[in-house]
């Protein structure tokens, strides 16, 4: 088609998507049924991962729960069984590729093909960049992003073969907007958002439209992950509340899920406002959390 013809087509598509979004505001989208599906959640021994495991258990899913914390993940599994579903707990260190590959092999052999993969395990180290231990920087990248590659390599092939499945990337508000004293954390979460977006395009290019992708970007969660978080415009939410909002997005195949929804507006403003304006918005929001500063100006 000639470019001059394609431009009006482009505007029509944009108009159509706005109208579609408007209609969807009033007509709730039907949630998909995931009953009986195998759901694997990493880092499900505590916090948001655990709360999401309970949500999937209420949908009658079979759960495969991974965490480095044995007691935590076994407790989650126990509660899922109490909710009436089968749940398998595995102790897996997601910072270790070999651990992930061998656990994945076990899951495939003993339980079956994973339908829904949720990469949720995450670590954080709130301190200035120069005082962040090399080890801690490496760990944040291993758990918060590299692990997503190893689990995808393990479970995506079957999903693609069957053109069925769902990959859920738990990123963060910090994958779109940044904060001081979270440099390595934010950059690892930006990478997770990038992985989600590029993978989504790649699956579409390969015509694997049956494999869905969702990226979950919460603001602060009261899970003790970040200590004493506060934000004026988006106060911290309980893990259960975040899980319930995330679930609605997952079951309607939403691609980018901001929690709370207002976060989307602040992300857009952050991009759109002039630098000074964006800074003023930040000031207004009064973001706070505990961090340490180890950096000192040296004499020489
Ligand atoms: N808490 C927040 O304010 C917040 C905000 C946005 C995004 N997130 C993201 O949500 C996800 C869950 O965080 P949360 O708030 O529930 O934290 P959490 O600390 O309550 O839970 C994280 C879980 O991951 C597990 N884990 C840590 N390292 C692991 C490893 N190497 N291998 C396997 N498991 C490991 C922990 O044992 C824990 O059970 C993380 O990816 C986090 O970055 C959290
Ligand atoms: C979500 O994706 C599944 C699998 O492709 C599909 O069956 C379902 O209809 C979709 N639901 C929505 C609301 O798009």
TrEMBL record:
Keyword field: Endoplasmic reticulum, Lipid biosynthesis, Lipid droplet, Lipid metabolism, NADP, Oxidoreductase, Signal, Steroid biosynthesis
Protein location: Endoplasmic reticulum; Lipid droplet
Broad EC category: oxidoreductase
Listed GO biological process terms: steroid biosynthetic process
GO cellular component, as recorded: endoplasmic reticulum; lipid droplet
PANTHER family noted in UniProt: ESTRADIOL 17-BETA-DEHYDROGENASE 11, PKSB
UniProt protein name: Estradiol 17-beta-dehydrogenase 11
Name of the coding gene: LOC114604128
């Amino acid at each position: 088609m000639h470019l001059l013809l394609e431009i009006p087509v482009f505007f029509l598509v944009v108009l159509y998507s706005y109208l579609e979004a408007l209609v969807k505001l009033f007509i709730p989208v039907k949630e998909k049924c995931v009953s009986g599906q195998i759901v694997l959640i990493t880092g499900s021994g505590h916090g948001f991962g655990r709360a999401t495991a309970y949500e999937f258990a209420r949908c009658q899913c079979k759960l495969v729960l991974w965490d480095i914390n044995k007691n935590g993940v076994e407790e989650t599994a126990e509660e899922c069984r109490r909710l009436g579903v089968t749940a398998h707990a595995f102790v897996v260190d997601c910072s270790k590729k070999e651990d992930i590959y061998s656990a994945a092999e076990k899951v495939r052999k003993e339980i079956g093909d994973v339908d829904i993969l949720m990469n949720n395990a995450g670590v954080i180290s709130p301190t200035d960049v120069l005082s962040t231990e090399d080890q801690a920087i490496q760990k944040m990248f291993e758990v918060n992003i590299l692990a997503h590659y190893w689990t995808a390599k393990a479970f995506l092939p079957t999903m693609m073969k069957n053109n069925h499945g769902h990959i859920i990337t738990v990123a963060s508000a910090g994958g779109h907007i940044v904060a001081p004293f979270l440099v390595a954390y934010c950059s690892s979460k930006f990478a997770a958002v990038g992985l989600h977006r590029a993978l989504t395009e790649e699956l579409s290019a390969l015509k694997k439209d049956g494999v869905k992708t969702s990226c979950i970007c919460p603001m602060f969660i009261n899970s003790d992950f970040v200590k004493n978080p506060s934000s004026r415009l988006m106060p911290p939410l309980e893990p259960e509340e975040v899980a319930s909002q995330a679930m609605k997005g997952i079951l309607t195949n939403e691609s980018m899920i901001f929690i709370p929804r207002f976060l989307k507006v602040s992300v857009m403003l952050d991009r759109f406002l002039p630098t000074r304006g964006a800074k003023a918005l930040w000031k207004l929001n009064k973001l706070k959390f505990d961090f340490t500063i180890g950096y000192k100006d040296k004499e020489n």
